[in-house]
Amino acid sequence: MHENLRMPHAVSHLRAARLARSAKPFLARGGFKRERCVDCRLVPSHCMCSLRPSLITRAGVCLLMADIEPLKPSNTGWLVADVVADTFAFGWTRTETDPDLLALLCDPQWQPYVVFPGQYAEPERVVRTVQPSDGLRDEARQTRPLFILLDGTWSEARKMFRRSPYLDRLPVLSLEPRQTSQYKLRNSGRTDHFCTSEVAALCMSLAGEPVAEQTLEAYLAVFTHHYLHAKSQQPIAWDGFAHQRLHEVSLLTSRDSGLNSASCGSVRAMPWNGEHREETVARKVPTGGRRRR
Ligand SMILES: [Zn+2]
Fold it and tell me: How far apart are CA 199 and CA 181, in angstroms?
């Protein structure tokens, strides 16, 4: 764990900028309209800021966020920014592109991948694995994978994919999930639509970062627990399965301090399948909101 527990990250900066542009206060659709923690967006009684993990990873994440996505309490791109220290976030509009985003995509330390279903891209752009850089012995010359996640509803994500010419030259990483989505805070009626945090976990797995993958999974389960218990005004089960699992994963992190893809390759054998009775019950309360892929 790192010391940046309460430091604002890319998504909180984006949220602050978006709020500054708002003429009227944002009211979460279908959510609870009570006072919220400015960091985790939950009501203070269900705040999970003390649980926030942060990892140094070789892979980075670049979130392109639809207009009000940073403001939505059910947004999980926020969780990715909590966990993955090298997370970048940019607001997406069709007509304007942040020069910092263009600079990031041209930065030679990164190999960007647009994470999107391959069926929507020209076949020659589609890849299903992340380029290993083992062939390059000189560490300084190795590029780091940068996963570009289109964070919005499914229709917003498709629009971002089609109408961002600067993405057209980049490979499209098409994921083949081994399981169905566990995310139940927005309901698309489909189990093959994954939330942003789940997509980031799958990417970390492909990048050979199992601790990041498992931390994202465990942190999403904790967030889901807090979110749904806040909504139903139930107390948090601080010693329940979700919290225990996040604690276990944090021990992996400290054991593998100085974490990188090489040093943590052995921890995938953890008996974790992302499913548990308590959380399955907790997550069966849909909020009727919209889903993203
Ligand atoms: Zn909080």
Answer: 10
Q: Ligand 1 centre from 6 Cα, in Å?
A: 9
Q: Quick check: 226 pLDDT over 60?
A: yes
DSSP notation for 203-263: HHHHTT-HHHHHHHHHHHHHHHHHHHHHHTTPPP-TTSHHHHHHHHHHHHHHHT-S--TTT
Q: What CA–CA distance (Å, rounded) separates 25 from 104?
A: 32
Q: What would the mean pLDDT of 176-184 be, rounded to a whole number?
A: 71
Q: How far apart are the C-alpha atoms of 107 and 110, rounded to whole Å? A: 6
The pLDDT tens digits of the residues spanning 65-81 come to 998 888 888 899 999 99
Q: Which two tokens stand for residue 91?
A: 């607001």
Ligand 1 centroid to Cα of residue 230, in Å, is 12
Question: 208 CA distance to ligand 1 centroid (A)?
Answer: 30
- Model confidence at 49, in pLDDT bands (50, 70, 90)? very high
Distance 135 CA to ligand 1 centre (A): 43
As a whole number, the mean pLDDT across the chain is 80
Residue-range domain boundaries for the chain: 10-17+32-132+139-282
Q: Rounded to an integer, what distance in angstroms lies between the CA atom of residue 109 and that of residue 253?
A: 24
Average pLDDT for 111-126 = 96
Using alpha carbons, list the distances in angstroms from residue 50 to 68, 243, 284: 26, 12, 26
| Ligand 1 centre distance from Cα of residue 36 (Å) | 8
pLDDT of 228 strictly over 90: yes
Rounded to the nearest whole angstrom, what is the distance from the C-alpha of residue 220 to the centroid of ligand 1? 14
Centre of ligand 1 to C-alpha 12, Å, is 12
CA 51 / ligand 1 centre spacing (Å)? 9
pLDDT the model gives residue 261:
35
* CA of 267 relative to ligand 1 center, distance in Å: 29
Please give the distance, rounded to the nearest whole angstrom, from the Cα atom of residue 11 to the centre of ligand 1.
14
